[in-house]
């Protein structure tokens, strides 16, 4: 669905490059649909990888936020 919407946006540019991008996005949507239908385990593998990546990014974000907050605790309140 996303590729179809992006293809419509690209087509609306009314240029050769827009038409090429629109056709390319349409082909990409068909290939992705084929892969997801042909290999059902692929979706589960992608979800597992994205969940691990999300956990890692949240952990790094929390660590960076605490580090940033700790930098303000050493300053007097009027210098913050």
Can you describe this structure in just a few lines?
84% of the residues lie in helices and 0% in strands. It has helices spanning 2-11, 16-38, 40-73.
Please explain how this structure is put together:
This protein is mostly helical. The protein contains 3 helices and no strands. The chain starts with a helix and ends in a 7-residue tail after the last helix. The mean pLDDT is 87.
Unreliable residue runs: none
How far is the N terminus from the C terminus?
Answer: 47 Å
**Number of strand elements:** 0
Total helical elements:
3
Mean pLDDT reading: 87
Q: Give the helices and strands as they follow along the chain.
A: HHH
Relative helix content: over 70%
Tag the structure with descriptive keywords.
mainly alpha, 3 helices
List the helices and strands and how they pair.
Blueprint: H1 2-11, H2 16-38, H3 40-73
Helix pairs in contact: 1-2, 2-3
């Amino acid at each position: 669905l996303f590729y179809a919407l992006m293809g419509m946006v690209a087509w609306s540019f009314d240029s050769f490059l827009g038409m090429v991008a629109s056709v390319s996005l349409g082909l990409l949507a068909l290939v992705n649909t084929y892969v997801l239908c042909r290999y059902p385990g692929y979706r589960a593998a992608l979800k597992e990888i994205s969940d691990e990546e999300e956990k890692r990014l949240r952990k790094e974000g929390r660590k960076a936020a605490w580090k940033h907050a700790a930098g303000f605790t050493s300053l007097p309140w009027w210098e913050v």
